[in-house]
Amino acid sequence: MSQSKPLKDRNFDNLASRFASNIYQTTKGKIRQAVLLRDLLELPELAAPTAILDVGGGQGQLALKLAALGHQLHLTDISAEMLQLAAEEAKNQGLSAQLQISQSSLQDLPQRLGGQAYPLVLCHAVLEWLAEPEAAISQLRQLVQPGGIVSLMFYNQDAHRLSNIIYGNFAYVQAGLKAKKPVRLNPQQPLSPLQVLQWCQQSGFSLLGKTGVRCFHDYLRDRSQQQSHYAELEALELQYNRQEPYASLGRYIHLLLRA
Questions:
Q1: Mean of pLDDT values over 127-156
Q2: What is the CATH number of the domain that holds 19?
Q3: Is 254 a known ligand-binding residue?
Q4: Is 124 assigned a ligand-binding role in the annotation?
């Protein structure tokens, strides 16, 4: 893929508070959290306390939810500001003992961990911010134990294209989804689900499950219903987001992968 400027991995230092208000504290973030928790808590591997590595876990919202259920979390991110917020919230919730924090990029983690691997590795909304997302898949493979699971969520190129056509952004779509002035909190490069799955299979993963994240939320004609009818919307998301064609319409795709 040719680029006018080489992509760089994204670091959210100096944007942590905006990231929280624009993502985590919105209905978008609530649905994302609900879907991921549902998918993860159905895994037999989480029936008893286990060690979990959260790669690029930011402010640790999901990590803290899992820590509160008795699991031991190792939260990593390249943003010191994000990790500081996670540490403060862990202290507020009395979960500091269950949350280990390391500032590191995904690329550096295999070496920094010295070969240590985990039964469950989370990597959510990271790939689309990386300059080399394909390489990240093989790096994740080094971090998970044989037979372990990787929970991988990424920004869906197909849904991104569909939503922009629905919104009437025809020039943007015809330009190959390349913005002249990228919005800082918008992903650098949405990814093709078929391409990502191919990368995963080439790295030795098998697919356990696929879920769409925000299959309906972002397409509502009346966006005020995202808040006014949130409970109904979340219930419908959870009911249909593993079924096709809805699973493939999610703004994010969540894959559960067996190493």
A1: 96
A2: 3.40.50.150
A3: no
A4: yes
